[in-house]
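User: Let's play a game. I give you a shape written as C-alpha cells, and you guess the letters that built it. Ready? Here's round one.
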C-alpha cells in the first residue's frame, strides 16, 4: 500500500459538492453515467498548464540556488536534502524560506564585493554571486508572471491561491472551485465521483509515464475515463497513448482503490504492456447514420464538396464493438458539431465519416 497525490481522501469522497455533482451526472445506464462524467469535465474544467510546467523550472532553479550557498559541503548536503524534500511536497512553502535567504545573501555579498572586503573570496566567488543572482532573478520572474497571469481569477474566485500551482495534491473542493486541473487532479475528481456512484464496483488508477487516468470494471471489461470524451476500453487507451507518445512500446501500472478502516488506499495489481498498435476498419457509414439519427438531421440538397471537415485524431483506435464506447463516441462527435455550429444543428443537411489510417474525418454539408 502507498500514497499518491491523485488518491482522494475520505473527506474528498464525502465532500457535499462532490456528492451533489455525482447525483447530477448519474444517468439511466452505465453508458450515460460514464459519458456524463467525461462530458462535464470537458465542458467545465480547463487544463492547468502552469501547474504542470512551472513546477519543474522552479524546482531545478531551487536546487541550483541551494547548491550555491556559501556553507560547508557536509552542511550544504543536509540543507539541500531537507529543502528538496520540503519543496517536493510544497515548493511554495519552501520558497517562502529560501527566497529571503537568497535575497539577503545576494545583497550582503554584493556589498562586501563592492567594498573590496578580501576574506569574502574564501566564501563566495564572483561566479557564484552572478549565478545565484541570475537564479534568484529567474525565480522571482516566474513568480511575478504567475501572480500577473492569475490575478484575474481572484476577481471571481477570491479564495484562489497562486501557491496551489505548486502543490502536488489538491483537495477536490479546490478542483471544483478553480475549474482548473492537470491529470492527477482529473484522476482524483473522477475517482471521487465513481466511488460515490459505484460503491460495489472495482475502481482503478492506471499509470503510464507522466500521466494517470481512472478505470472501472463493468461487464467484465475495464473502461478508462481520461479527462475528455470518449470512454476507452483499457487496450484502446494504451494504444491511444502509445500513438500520442510515439513510442514503440508502452507499459501501464494498474492500481486498485481499496476502502480500509475508514481510509482510501491503493494496491498495485499488475503491469500491462503494449508493443503493437492496431487500426481497425470501422463501419463508418453506420456510425455516421447513428450520429444523424441522434441529431435528427433531415437530409436536404447538398453540393459535391463538404462545407466543413473536422479531423478526429486517433478515433479509429476505438476498435471495440462496445455499447459504452460507441455511445460516448457518438456524444463526442455531437459535441464537436455543436461547438462548430454554436448549438444550431438545424443548419446541417448531411454528415459523413471517412477513415484515414488512425483518424476519422467528419464531413459536414449545410442546407
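Assistant: Ready! My guess for every position:
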Amino acid at each position: 500500500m502507498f500514497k499518491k497525490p491523485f488518491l482522494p481522501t475520505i473527506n474528498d469522497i464525502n465532500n457535499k459538492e462532490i456528492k451533489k455533482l455525482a447525483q447530477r451526472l448519474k444517468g439511466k445506464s452505465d453508458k450515460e453515467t460514464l459519458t456524463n462524467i467525461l462530458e462535464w469535465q470537458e465542458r467545465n474544467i480547463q487544463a492547468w498548464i502552469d501547474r504542470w510546467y512551472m513546477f519543474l523550472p522552479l524546482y531545478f532553479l531551487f536546487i541550483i540556488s541551494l547548491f550555491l550557498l556559501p556553507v560547508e559541503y557536509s552542511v550544504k548536503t543536509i540543507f539541500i536534502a531537507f529543502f528538496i524534500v520540503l519543496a517536493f511536497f510544497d515548493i511554495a512553502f519552501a520558497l517562502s524560506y529560501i527566497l529571503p535567504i537568497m535575497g539577503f545573501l545576494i545583497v550582503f555579498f554584493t556589498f562586501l564585493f563592492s567594498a573590496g572586503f578580501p576574506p569574502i573570496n574564501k566564501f563566495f566567488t564572483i561566479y557564484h554571486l552572478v549565478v545565484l543572482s541570475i537564479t534568484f532573478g529567474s525565480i522571482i520572474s516566474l513568480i511575478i508572471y504567475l501572480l500577473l497571469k492569475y490575478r484575474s481569477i481572484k476577481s471571481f474566485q477570491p479564495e484562489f491561491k497562486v501557491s496551489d500551482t505548486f502543490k502536488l495534491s489538491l483537495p477536490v473542493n479546490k478542483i471544483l472551485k478553480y475549474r482548473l486541473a492537470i491529470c492527477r487532479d482529473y484522476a482524483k475528481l473522477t475517482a471521487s465521483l465513481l466511488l460515490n456512484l459505484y460503491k460495489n464496483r472495482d475502481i482503478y488508477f492506471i499509470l503510464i509515464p507522466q500521466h494517470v487516468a481512472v478505470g472501472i470494471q463493468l461487464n467484465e471489461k475495464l473502461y478508462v475515463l481520461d479527462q475528455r470524451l470518449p470512454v476507452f476500453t483499457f487496450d484502446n487507451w494504451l494504444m491511444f497513448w502509445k500513438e500520442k507518445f510515439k513510442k514503440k512500446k508502452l507499459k501501464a501500472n494498474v492500481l486498485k482503490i481499496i476502502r480500509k478502516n475508514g481510509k482510501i488506499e491503493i494496491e498495485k495489481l499488475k503491469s500491462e504492456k503494449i508493443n503493437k498498435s492496431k487500426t481497425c476498419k470501422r463501419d463508418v457509414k453506420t456510425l455516421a447514420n447513428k450520429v444523424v439519427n441522434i441529431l435528427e438531421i433531415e437530409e436536404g440538397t447538398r453540393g459535391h464538396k463538404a462545407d466543413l471537415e473536422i479531423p478526429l485524431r486517433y478515433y479509429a483506435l476505438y476498435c471495440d464493438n462496445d455499447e459504452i464506447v460507441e455511445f460516448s463516441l457518438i456524444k463526442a462527435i455531437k459535441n464537436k458539431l455543436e461547438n462548430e455550429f454554436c448549438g444550431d444543428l438545424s443548419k446541417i443537411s448531411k454528415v459523413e465519416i471517412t477513415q484515414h489510417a488512425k483518424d476519422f474525418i467528419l464531413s459536414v454539408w449545410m442546407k
